[in-house]
Amino acid sequence: MQAPAQFLARSALQSMIDALAARGYRVIGPQVRDGAIVYADLAQVNDLPQGWRDAQEPSSYRLTHSDNVRCFAWANGPQAIKPHLFAAQEPLWRAIQTDDGFRVEAVEPDVRPLAFIGVRACDLSALALQDRVFLGGPFVDPYYAARGTEMLLIAVHCSHAAATCFCASTGDGPRAGAGFDLALSELEEGFVLEVGSAAGRGIAALLPLTVASAQQIQAAQTQVEAAAQSQTRTLPSRNLRDLLFANLDHPRWDDVAARCLSCGNCTLVCPTCFCHAESEVTALNGKETLHQREWDSCFSAGHGYIHGFQVRPETKHRYRQWLTHKLGSWHEQFGRSGCVGCGRCIAWCPVGIDLTEEAHAITGETGHDE
Amino acid sequence: MSRAMRELILGRVRPGAAVTFFCLPKRNVTKEKGTPFAGPHYGGFPALLAKPGGCATRAIRCAATRSDSARRLPPARLRYSAARRGPNYVAVFTMHTNPYLPHVARIVERRQDAPTIFTLRLAFEDAAMQRQYRFQPGQFNMLYLYGVGEVAISIVSDPEEETMFDHTIRVVGRVTEGLAKLAPGDRVGIRGPYGRGWPLAAAVGKNVLIVTGGLGCAPVVSVIRYVMRRRADYGKLTIIQGVKHSADLIYRLQYEDWARAPDTTVLIAANASAGPWPWHVGPVTELITQAHVAPDSSVAMMCGPEGMMIAAAKILLQHGLGEDRIYFSTERNMHCALGHCGHCQFGGKFVCRNGPVFDYSEIKELLGIRGF
Amino acid sequence: MTKPRVAIHKFSSCDGCQLAFLNAGAALLELAQLVDLVHFAEAGAVQPDAAVDIAFVEGSITTAHEIERIQNIRANSKYLVTIGACATSGGIQALRNGKMQGADWIASVYASPQFISSLDTSTAIAQHVKVDYELWGCPVTSRQVLQLLRDLLFAVRPKVNADPLCLDCKRAGNVCVLVTRGEPCMGPVTRTGCGALCPQFGRACYACFGPSELVNGHALGQRLSGLGLTSADVAKRFLFINAGAEAYAEAAAFTEHKHD
User: Fold this and answer.
1) From B205, C8, C128, C233, which residue has the greatest number of CB atoms within 10 Å?
2) Would the CB atoms of C188 and A36 count as touching at under 8 Å?
């Protein structure tokens, strides 16, 4: 699908949103809300986070504004694609009382086509992993699958990494490698555009594009390389499974448990975490009941509970489950690590526990460049 | 996929079914048979599945679901979707009903086995579904209690029985205590069967050793009955049961009955006893030596507290039984039973999908480690 | 079929938790059809000594008379369910426990302390009688009480959810006020149930639903100190609505001890 790179002038960016809307897509893009970059319905270019930068550190996320014309000069926010496909809370089916028992009806999810603008490389990797979880096994998850219908993804290669980013070391970014329909590199004057699929080509055909100059292509390349170079955190990209499981008694688990709140924030901001719990919400009169699911976490009490017995009673067990799964048993289950280097679990941890630091300490693998 | 195949699949989707269509690269598509155990979710139909990982790339996927009726998706739309992706793509169907939906079943009979243990005999309301329903001993269903929730319970009846299936249930939580109050004629929801059952086909011609502890372990009862009904297919059957106290032994008559069967030995141990107790007093593991396990021609199947199973496995290993001949029935928290919800993970294994029956070599790394 | 008999009792409290029933709207009418509300003074029915299937108890124990009353209620009820922070942990009034002598407290508040007759402490119902189920919150929500009633009507034990508030907050799509603004949010140590009401409006959680399952008060206390709170400020974050909850009392004691 490689074609000569094209160029979309900044002044013509609205035409992309309009083209997607005209094709019937619900357009979702980054915006500033409550002090963070969030992905929400996008109608106007003016709603993009122009001039905003993010400064992320363990347990800290701050946005600052300047006169910079760029709209994508930030790394990421607390969520991206995940909540739009794997809903945080959704009804699965309802059961309705009948004279002799009950009947069951599926609750259908909203299947409006989605178009995402400004998706990051790490989020594309995470999406591919969630696809493996919900679509790749013997059972297809119809709720997740339905929301992905006709989804269009417009990536923006990262020109800026946050201090919490480490996608370069996991191999997931900062350049979006695959899985996009269109990819943009943002320059001051506009966007270098690459086509990644036939659907993307269809949208590109509707835009006022010119051929990108060699300098523009070079500048785009340089800034994404700089974003990679600027990353200081690392995670060994090799399979850590055996190392982690060989260190289940490492004193570091106690150390991290003393700091960990067991609050589950890391798991709910993680774009690959897939655990969810099912529960029942019943009308008071008992005539109808809704069976729903919601995001769960390996840090919750319900996660490891079996009739009167708690598999993971202590925070130490729960943190160990999270890390050995994310970086270890994911390999067995889905063929790669469950970490895409987005750094969200570091920034959004209320007490600033750094997954990369814990992984280095426990595996003894060096490479953390302080 | 041939046109005939597509017609076949679409034509037999029943109401309530969801059909998912994918556009995948040709290289990722393989033709496979459906699951070996034809449950209601596959309805026994062959399905075209993507190769593992084949769904990984979002840009090539195009899915549509229908769950209200068996309406057909216009073939033109499918071909269009595939064509839009380029010449190397093909439209693929996976046929399945919505795997999250329970199917209504009626309680035909209820039997109280012990103060906290009872058996429900169930039949699907949909007679066709009941006829089609197949499972293997050791597999489980999700039982749904109206308004309360679901719980994973293993199936204990004989797989050849076509008119109904049985669940033996111990009252341990809010769902099971509610299920215990149901009576014949009441309805429950059923999804399943799920998981990998006991290796009964592989054990044909071999001696079968059953080791179980605690308050009557339903998963191995299904194996014992299975072997009893096909006695000629198997060698010596040895049943070892351990209880904490002699008063805890349930199914006492059942054990005595089994002990009289040909070529069958029943060994029972209680850590402590009171009253007349013809069996062993001491840990159940002491009985394993008495069982005279022939390492080359035996298969051990175990169920019960993990500590007991681990201790028994160690002794069996000392007797020369191979790690791949020692099977455990495991238990973890279960919500979806589809490999999606993450609760039942045991290290890299999903107990719902890779288990609940594992051989020792598959899980020995994490056995007995608190937190897994 | 006879309808289950239900009583709603009030002890030392503000009456706010009873509003979970009164404000339930149409559900209240449905409830009246499903159960027999034999005692609910705020809604008119008064039979405090009637034998019931389910007794909801609001408020803490602060007088000698209340000790007698709760024992009587326990004897008359099949299930006893506490509703709200006061009944479940002693409430905001438990702040007086163990600090000053009761008499000094009373003298500092009332012009004519001789008319006041109360115990030195405000204590949870569970410190006096067996409690079957607890609903935390200040106040509890209609959803909580109705779901519990529904479960009991189905003859199953109610589901306990002691997950930290952060899980609900993230599910709701709220942006974390601690991470983006340095607000001293108690969400990580607070039980879910309110629907993440405060963070949704940009406010820090103040722990009115009581302790979550695993409270690491030390770690959160240190973090709050890092945000510029003094050790006394940190202790106050724990000792507020649920000062009598053991996990919070321990966290506050640890924080004060560490920094004093």
Assistant:
1) C8
2) no
